[in-house]
Amino acid sequence: MRETKNVSRPEFDQFAENYNAGFDDPLKGVFGQSAQAFIAPKLRLLERAVRKLRPGFLTQPIKVLDFGCGAGDFLSGLAHHWPNWALEGCDVSSGMLLEAKKRLGHEYPDIRLWQAEETELPNSAYDLVTVVCVLHHVDPESLAETLQTTIETLTPGGILVIMEHNPLNPVTRWMVSRTEVDRNAHLVSASSLRSRLPLKEFAKTEIRNFLFFPPRLAALASIEPALDWIPFGGQYAFFGVKG
């Protein structure tokens, strides 16, 4: 068992009510109509990767933790696409968890939500752990410890999924600089992430890049899988199968 710390900041409570991921900025709306528009490509990438790494997971009632779940938008997408998965979400922000309960409670009442700083994360408890746009809010000095914590929650053969903003992409850097909730962000590159991960704990790892095109250009979504080896997408994803 390990306690989480420095995964977020209490400042997130002030953004929690009616959280919209920075879409009060009209320029962000040029790229996608809503936060959900940016979640859809994440779900497509997750499905492609899991189908390759552990295809049975897509139909099995696996146990999943969304680490740093925020207002629950990614959890909502997971629940919609894979209703057989047993879903949990944790976050250090009590305000974000209240917002997540408000958004998820009616349609997905079985999703368990809990505050990470008040509850130790259990070892070897989850088949899949997602960490979606969380690490850039972690104190860089605590990043390696946070990553180790997420790995310890995985069952042997479980999959760790990390999705992050790509600092190599100038549009990404520009958008982050305009977003109030990201004012204290420290963007983490794919190479920096790998240097902090205990790669010996994984039987297999891979990194895929995505969001080469804004979600508004939905017709180009089919091209993205052919580009995922190019390290300049708006975001990237790490997939690791625990040994």
Please give a structural write-up.
This protein is of the alpha/beta class and 243 residues long. It has a single domain (10-242), classed as Rossmann fold (3-Layer(aba) Sandwich). It contains 9 helices and 7 strands, in the order αααβαβαββαβααβαβ. The chain has helices at 13-16, 26-29, 35-53, 73-81, 94-104, 143-152, 170-178, 190-196, 224-227; strands spanning 63-67, 86-91, 112-115, 126-132, 154-165, 202-210, 235-242. Strands 3-2-1-4-5-7-6 form a 7-stranded mixed β-sheet. β4, α6 (143-152) and β5 form a beta-alpha-beta unit. α3 crosses α4 (73-81). The longest helix has 19 residues, at 35-53. The two termini are 19 Å apart. The relative contact order is 0.18.
Low-confidence stretches: 1-9
CATH topology: Rossmann fold
Global outline: globular
Distance between the first and last residues' Cα: 19 Å
Number of helices: 9
Strand count, sense and closure of the main sheet? Answer: 7 strands, mixed
Sum this structure up briefly.
The protein is an alpha/beta fold and 243 residues long. The chain has helices spanning 13-16, 26-29, 35-53, 73-81, 94-104, 143-152, 170-178, 190-196, 224-227; strands spanning 63-67, 86-91, 112-115, 126-132, 154-165, 202-210, 235-242. It is globular, with a radius of gyration of 17 Å.
Question: What layout of secondary structure does this protein have?
Answer:
Blueprint: H1 13-16, H2 26-29, H3 35-53, E1 63-67, H4 73-81, E2 86-91, H5 94-104, E3 112-115, E4 126-132, H6 143-152, E5 154-165, H7 170-178, H8 190-196, E6 202-210, H9 224-227, E7 235-242
Parallel strand pairs: 1-2, 1-4, 2-3, 4-5
Antiparallel strand pairs: 5-7, 6-7
